[in-house]
From TrEMBL, chain A:
It comes from Mesonia hippocampi. NCBIfam families: PA_CoA_Oxy2 (TIGR02157). It comes from the Bacteria. InterPro entries: PaaB, PaaB_sf. Gene3D superfamilies: Phenylacetic acid degradation B. This is Ring-1,2-phenylacetyl-CoA epoxidase subunit PaaB.
From TrEMBL, chain B:
One of its GO terms (molecular function) is phenylacetyl-CoA 1,2-epoxidase activity. GO terms for cellular component: cytosol. Its EC number is 1.14.13.149. This is Ring-1,2-phenylacetyl-CoA epoxidase subunit PaaA. PANTHER family: 1,2-PHENYLACETYL-COA EPOXIDASE, SUBUNIT A, PHENYLACETIC ACID DEGRADATION PROTEIN PAA.
Amino acid sequence: MSDKKEQKKNWPLWEVFVRSKNGLEHRHFGSLHAADAAMALENARDVYTRRNEGVSIWVVESKHITASNPEHNGELFEPANDKVYRHPTFYDLPDEVKHM
Amino acid sequence: MSEKEIKNLEEIFDQKIARDEKIEPKDWMPEKYRQTHIRQMSQHAHSEIVGMLPEGNWISRAPSLRRKVALLAKVQDEAGHGLYLYSATETLGVSREELYEQLHSGKAKYSSIFNYPTVTWADIGAIGWLVDGAAIINQVPLCNTSFGPYARAMVRVCKEESFHQRQGYEIMLTLSKGTKAQKEMAQDALNRWWWPSLMMFGPTDDKSTHTAQSMKWKLKRKTNDELRQQFIDQTVPQAEILGLSIPDKDLKWNEERKSYDFGEINWDEFWQVVKGHGPCNRERLQTRVNAWENGAWVRDAAMAYAEKNAERKIKKAV
């Protein structure tokens, strides 16, 4: 292989969120590399919406996302498990009561 | 972690996959699962990227504007598919640069089919019909594979792929209804692409080393031979509609199996091409490396511009 000039800096990674139509939320579509936010938007248009998949695009640099660790799912989500009183079925009502 | 703990985690992991639960990037996974996925997904991405080259060869010479816009859109889709797959691979903790480096140094493979030349316009028809047809059969089961980002990328890829095959078949249909010379050109393309397309499903089951593990991880749902048979059975009637003949004298309907019997595949040729001795291996890789290296100044300039803009914004704010 020919000797390569070391590239100065690689384009950062961006996460792409697309609203497929008004009334729906933006959904994560994937990621891509771009030098800045404007280019990330343009690239997202070309990569993820070639067939009218969206009416709105959000991009955010991946490094700004803080994610929970699935290994800590126990501690993180456990408090919800024993709070059955948050659900309507927890409450005993006679069958005669309608519309509730 | 002790060996016992890892074994325990592996058992939980296997059960998750068996229950059809997806594995997401930050979940614990066996190192072999990670490595196998990096290898397969990046090979898949590389194939999409290198796959643009044989077809790109005909964009400027497409016979009509209709054909040209369709071919441009198809090649652009392939770039898109490569990008979906690269970004899905990156979720496993490997960088885009590493992946490119593996491709450019020849360490990573891509589908051997793209090491064959596109010498006539009919080759564009044959690629869409046969190569994309074979790719669809390989890819559809991957929409349900166990690794979430791969499965999601494949859903998108498969949605877009059917236009590719139809545009190819339409080219073949037009040529085979055309003049004698056009029909001969279509037949010649079929003759050259048929066997390499059958090779796209990989070695026969008794020679394939990865099948058992890949089945367990749902990287494969059917074996190479089953998929190859499926391709042949659905493609032969399509060739009949075109009035073209499949270049295999042993091809014969087997009433008992309700499938076509077919001739011996030239596996020597397959391995030669895999090892880098196909008609276009060097040219394809060189074109790809040149594109990357010649584009370096553009990438650097874009980065410099972005940094300068960011600095300006800060100064303004101060």
